[in-house]
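User: quick one
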Amino acid sequence: MKEFRVNAKGAFKLKDVKADYGSGDKAETKEKLLALNKELEMLQEQLYAEHKHKVLVILQAMDTGGKDGVIRHVFEGVNPQGVRVAGFKAPTPLELDHDYLWRVHQQAPAKGELVIFNRSHYEDVLVVAVHQLVPEKVWCKRYDQINDFERMLAEEGTTICKFFLHIDLDEQKQRLQERLENPDKQWKFNPDDLKERKLWPEYMKAYEAVLRRTSTDWAPWYVVPSNKKWFRNYVVASILVKTLRGLNMKYPKADFDPSAIQIDGTALP
Ligand code: ATP
Ligand code: MG
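Assistant: Done. Structure below.
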């Protein structure tokens, strides 16, 4: 899975990652995902029980890229009490009156928590840069600010994994078309998405800058080929499981002697 990690020092190029890449057999890969779902369920329980680490998963993608699909399929089986999803839409007037990390920091995970960001502070160097919502001299400072912010979170015990779900222009067209034609999917169609679609090259440039400048040792980016949903889900689940395994979590030891306790009775001699 290392192949999908953006090298912190490299001159990353988005066009070197093929959005329609997928290796392995589809049915077999789906089976493997089920095993990963089970393991993730166990790891999340340990995370909660141990109450030591904090885990932050950041999902970014173009419209229809599959953020919702990843949340649904990768976390299938995980105790809903154990994960929290924080979505970041266009900021409210109150949020705009504060610095851009104000609303983000409030949603960062606490000890024992796994939080998924559905969009994130990266919008503040993506949509904001593409539409020049603030002057360039303001947003261009944000890459370093974001790196500093994430380093602080990491140094305070947060494990951060960032995923860019990479689809191509043709795949987006197909997915939008499907939403348009299928009455059960029309609710997901947003005519405004077509305006953003026209800005695809600008968005790719903005994503490339993000991936080059903010993939760090403490908060790496993974670019996931996402045209094939089964491959996308498998890659994200594999990386997450591997990262969580690396925390070497343990169920806490009892601070009492279990053999000295009898339920509904007096202690054994
Ligand atoms: P869906 O897949 O359901 O469409 P979504 O994440 O695209 O989910 P939307 O409500 O369609 O949700 O879009 C949220 C919008 O909010 C996006 O267009 C995004 O660019 C915008 N947004 C998020 N953060 C910011 C920000 N800081 N400044 C401006 N716009 C933002
Ligand atoms: Mg949308």
